[in-house]
Amino acid sequence: MTAVELIERKRDGGTLTGNEIRWLITEYTAGTVADYQMSAMLMAIFIHGLNGEDLTVWTEAMLTSGEVLELSDIAGCKVDKHSTGGVGDKISIPLAPMVGACGVKIPMMSGRGLGHTGGTLDKLETIPGFRTGFSADQFAILLAEHGVVLGGQSEHLVPADRKLYALRDATGTVPAIPLIASSIMSKKLAEDLDGLVLDVKFGPGAFMEEIDRARRLAETMVEIGDLRGTRVVALLTDMSQPLGREVGNASEIRESIDTLRGEGPADITELTYVLGAEMLVMGEVASSVEEGRTLLEEAVATGRAMEKFAEIVTAQGGDAQVLENPELLPTAYNTDTLEAPESGWVARCDALSIGVGAMRLGAGRERKEDNIDPAVGVTVQAKVGDHVEKGDVLAKIHWNDAYARGIATPLITSAWEISESPVEAPQLIAERIGSQR
């Protein structure tokens, strides 16, 4: 077979056999199939899509393109969670120790922030000494000893995805749902999971703004899991406004610590418990989500969740004193306040404007090679549905660089809209997709 033959068939709306897909991914990863040839294939997939079986084979070929974790010798169910990314989304940080404290193994591989969406690894690395890079053997040892690992994708895990993602970015094919789904699922299934819970976001601050496209992505990923024999459940969640109050890196670690103490914002706490309860059912620790939620609440109330987080931080080289004294985390030198220009109800607290503003302050990256400032960010004081008086604080802007502050402040200021009439807060969780419990 030749790459040109496969491109022509897909261009004309045809299908590829499993062996052809495996050959294509293998040869592209090895460098035999050129970038310009794979670019043509990606555009053909963008136009014509991939059916369920083809997409499953494509995903399988990607996940076996390099190293695959072998965790079957570790007792207990292995369950992970993945979010499609949002503003103020620090859910993984309190979620993993909560669920781990209840007895489910969590081999969590997270990513770094890019654009207006934050990255779990960047947030964790604001803890002095915290390491996220491990070999496959080191990862397995940590999981066996502590039940939870909060790490990043190694150079050898799913190399096909790394090459394809860069190519998709350069060829305008990033929005293709089959390619998004296979990218996410190949990395997650390479973790040797028994179950996966997905947080698929929609709204202005999400990768997919329209709920219909978010639903299609969720359904596609659930189908990939089903066809491969891995249970997958997806929640569609609102990202029209930031999650929680903090948007930054060190500040989101502080808010995660508050959540593990039972003192976190209502939306962070609720979403953590809902996702965690699904994970406990998958992990066969709870027979229902109601029982799972009770177990999570008990883990927080008794301090076991915080103890598990301290154990994880120490095992991964971090300074666990931060959990007792969050002031050890980086703090910005300057803080401005943004005040309500009039009295009324908050009708808009735009996640995208706040996320881009925080990125301009230095909390995020426009390009992968950019450095971040862990101390800067935004504290959201008023969200949709809240009543404010003229002069009340809508947000605090934490900054270190005056030029960055000048660029970011107008963006952040534009995020709020005040209404004369009461406004209802958006529903956080819109839908659940997946097999019945």
Protein traits:
437 residues, alpha/beta, Transferase, Pyrimidine Nucleoside Phosphorylase, Chain A, domain 3, Pyrimidine Nucleoside Phosphorylase, Chain A, domain 2, Aldehyde Oxidoreductase, domain 3, four-stranded mixed sheet, four-stranded antiparallel sheet
Describe the protein's topology.
Blueprint: H1 3-11, H2 18-30, H3 35-48, H4 52-63, E1 79-83, H5 92-101, E2 106-110, H6 120-124, H7 136-146, E3 148-152, H8 159-171, H9 177-189, E4 195-202, H10 211-228, E5 231-238, E6 246-248, H11 250-260, H12 266-282, H13 289-301, H14 304-315, H15 321-324, E7 334-339, E8 344-349, H16 351-363, E9 377-380, E10 387-388, E11 393-399, H17 402-413, E12 416-419, E13 429-434
Parallel strand pairs: 1-4, 2-3, 4-5
Antiparallel strand pairs: 5-13, 6-9, 7-11, 8-10, 8-12, 9-11
